[in-house]
Amino acid sequence: MVAQIDRTETKLLFAADFRFRIEQDWNSRKSDGSFRDDRTRLRYRARLGVSYAYEDWVSFGMRLRTGDPQKQQDPQLTLGDGFKEFGTLPISFEKVYAQFDLQWLSAWIGKNTFPFEKQNELFWSDNVFPEGISLSGKFAFENEYIQSVQINTGHFVLATNGASLEADSYFQGIQISTTHWENRLNFFPTFYYFSKIPNIPDGNKTYTTNYAIMHMGATVEIIKKPKITAGLDYYQNIEDYKNNDSIPQKFRDQKQGIVTSVSIGNLENKGDFKLKLTYTYLERYAAVDFLAQNDWARWDYSSQDSPDGRLTNFKGFEIMVGYVLDKNVNLKIRGFQVNQIKTIGFERETGNRIRLDFNIRF
Q1: How big is the CA angle at 306 (ends 87 and 121), to the nearest 5 degrees?
Q2: Which among 303, 287, 286 is positioned nearest to 349, based on CA atoms?
Q3: What is the predicted pLDDT for the residue at 9?
Q4: CB 20: neighbour CB atoms within 10 A?
Q5: What is the C-alpha to C-alpha distance for residues 48 and 64, in angstroms, rounded to an integer?
Q6: For 12-361, which CATH class?
Q7: Which DSSP string do the residues of 288-342 spell out, in sequence order?
Q8: Which of 13, 88, 232, 340 has an alpha carbon 20 to 30 Å from 245's alpha carbon atom?
Q9: Between the CA of residue 293 and those of 123, 148, 287, what are the distances in Å?
Q10: Taking 80 as the threshold, does the pLDDT of residue 202 lie above it?
Q11: What share of the chain in percent tops pLDDT 70?
């Protein structure tokens, strides 16, 4: 997260963050039954952002990050990996946008943060920044049943074909997010439509597919002190693949997903502690795999000459423990255990991973 500053103090704002990561992978079985070598990596990420408030109602912003520009899911760099003998590092823009705020209405154009409410990265990675147009309207209420209603929508282009907008690879979404019970209960039903999505990213596709995904999401703060929170996400792709000959028969009905989580504590102030457990069951077409997180396992499209991850068609657990060392400085340790739902080869793929992150914001 990038630190926020009150815009009444200054029009020009700078923010930065840095992460150092130690990561260990083991028991990572491939689809042919062989195992990937156990792997230890030392990794890091750096980001620098700037925004300028031209007027109260319009601002401009951009942010630079480290990372391979062709790996939208992964801004981390590995020490000594591809940049040997102390060569220069790849740096690129991850955000460039204009932001508009007019009373209850807000909007942005350009490349910016995913504008829909979410509680994890299992459907959409925090490192993937869509390009397009976003609109949000928020309405506050003063009663005991409902505190706010926010409507989020937008049109975002994954790849343009230089013809009409309908010919582009794009996605659209509409979401209604409501808060209740003194803002302790949040519902956010959403519908996403993805058009002409390649089966393999980065120009190596052999066919394209549409996704029409209904998402029912909710979080609830069960206890305030200590803070105990539970979350639920349910995904259902209603697109009909029964007669799609490009998709293998055994995957044509693999369109559902569920994510459940429970946590205790928070990571807001010095000395805070948080423990979180997440269970995921995500079938092949419940999400677009190369737009979702690539944290849980080493599965990717490297055999198809693409650097992107393919993290759907799996089930497993994550446990996270975090501790705040000081203002804007924390440690997080995360462990993952993953199994494939449907085989894509002779054997089900697996993976175990543990990582320790040191995070600092400026």
Answers
A1: 90
A2: 303
A3: 61
A4: 16
A5: 5
A6: mainly beta
A7: -TTTS---S---BSGGGT---B---SEEEEEEEEEEEEETTEEEEEEEEEEEESS
A8: 340
A9: 7, 29, 11
A10: yes
A11: 98
